[in-house]
Amino acid sequence: MTGRELGERFLSKEIEADRRSERWLVLKAVIALAVVGVLVVVRQVFFG
Amino acid sequence: MTIDWLQVGVTALTTVLLAFVAVGAIPILATLYQFLAIPFHSVINHYRKATPYLPRVAVVVPAWNEGAVIGASVDRLMSLEYPSDRLRVFVVDDASTDDTPEVVRGKEQQYPGRVVHLRREKGGEGKAHTLNFGIGRVLEDDWMQALLIMDADVIYLPDSLRRMTRHLGDPQVGAVTAYIAEGSADKNYLTRFIGMEYVLAQVASRRAQNVLGALACLAGGAQLHSRDNLEAIGGRIDTSSLAEDTITTFETQLRGRRVVFEPHAVVLAEEPERIASLWKQRLRWARGNVQVTSRYRRVWFRPSRVHKLGKPSFGIFWFSIFLLPVAMILSSTGLIGLFLLQSELATVVFRAMWITAACTYVYTIVLAVQLDGRTGRRSWREAILFPGLVSIIVMVTAFFPGLLERRLPELLGIPVTPTGEAAWTLFVYAWISFSMLFAWLAKVVESTAVGRFLSPFLIYVVGYGPLLCAVTVDSYIKEWRHEAAVWDKTEKIGRVAG
């Protein structure tokens, strides 16, 4: 692959796409915390 | 007024035992803290400072008897999505006795000017010496703007190099590392555990380290250095320890340059499929970490304006791993001691600690399997059983009090006696220490007739984490005895699926 094919615009877009994809981390962490939350609720209801 | 010395003694002993349990809780809290930092990578990352940057990259590949894999590795490098006039590969043949020289010379002819075969006649001194031979050659002229250090058997995904170089567009960044994913085509239980470990230790933890500003280690098979950084750290790799990549990482940061982990640059690696090979590899890493801990004793917990390695949080992370077996033994000792002194306090402390451990475990595993969905789907059993079946039972005991020690036996019609309950409690408190012993047994039985079945069974029951802790204990012993630190290469036979 040549430098021309990997143009500045393409590379900038790729950086921006990867930067944006990191935003999903928040949702993924929320899902993980929600699973913990469910377990805590079960504990409080049935074993509290 | 008379002093009740017995009471004073009991109080003092209780305080010491509580401190033991508290020390045992530090690694759990450190892990939780680190994983809670991961979502902040959505805003605290290096992408805003990354730029379209494609420097002239020299790739140095150390190769000792890599005839089975080196040809394919070179072909893969040549087909990277990277300008062909800005990529040169230097294979340092470390006095190989197989067909490595012939294979590499064939690639030299196939890719003239882009592949260089360098031969060391005096070999077997270790990876760092081999790398330095190649680095010395690369630094002889000014063509190289960035140096990529890799292993002969790893496979870079086509877009991985350019995803790494973009961070070097920022002069503050000295080095970049990628995500080394377990890439064996013929996966077994152990390579699946390793795959999950790499998700936890790299895709997850290194994102947190990006957020906190200090990285513990550039992956040995994927480290990209700017020329400036390479020259600043002396133009060579440290040869005095077994952890040359960690030392390079520290030296880079101690000089005020950043080290960045790029999670979207993926490199596939072949990892051990037997405990004996894994033990050998990890013992080398663990002994290297003992050497690093000692060498940088003036860095830990000493905040600096130049680097962030002295931040208390980084020190706690480092020592949480380095001293994890000690923490595990202290927590068991504390809980058993409290149980013998006054069992009610032991119950309260046990629940607090293991409920925290259970929440941390669930949060980290659920987050990790989402971070690398492919590995998560392939290794979901190993993800769930990462701490081992018994530790999960211990967590359930703490999290759902009465379920396993009373409700379940009642349901099954098993009578519960006070002696039986006390024995169960002692087992639960002691397990975390004994898990390392059983993990070591999994290694011992592996070479026996029943090892093929018993070793995987033991690892699923005891846990993969305790296996790594057992290796760490072995590293303490070997360093304490000053046993010869031999650079044992892990055998690679080209099982990576590209």
TrEMBL record, chain A:
Highest taxon in the source lineage: Bacteria
Keyword annotations of the record: Membrane, Transmembrane, Transmembrane helix
Membrane-spanning parts: 25-46
Protein's name in the database: Preprotein translocase subunit SecE
Automatic annotation (TrEMBL), chain B:
Annotated TM spans: 12-38, 314-340, 352-371, 383-404, 424-445, 457-477
GO molecular function: glycosyltransferase activity
A UniProt-annotated Pfam family: Glyco_tranf_2_3
InterPro entries recorded: Nucleotide-diphossugar_trans (IPR029044)
EC numbers on record: 2.4.-.-
Keyword Membrane attached: yes
Keywords assigned: Glycosyltransferase, Membrane, Transferase, Transmembrane, Transmembrane helix
Keyword Glycosyltransferase: yes
Family indicated by similarity: Belongs to the glycosyltransferase 2 family.
Protein name: Glycosyltransferase
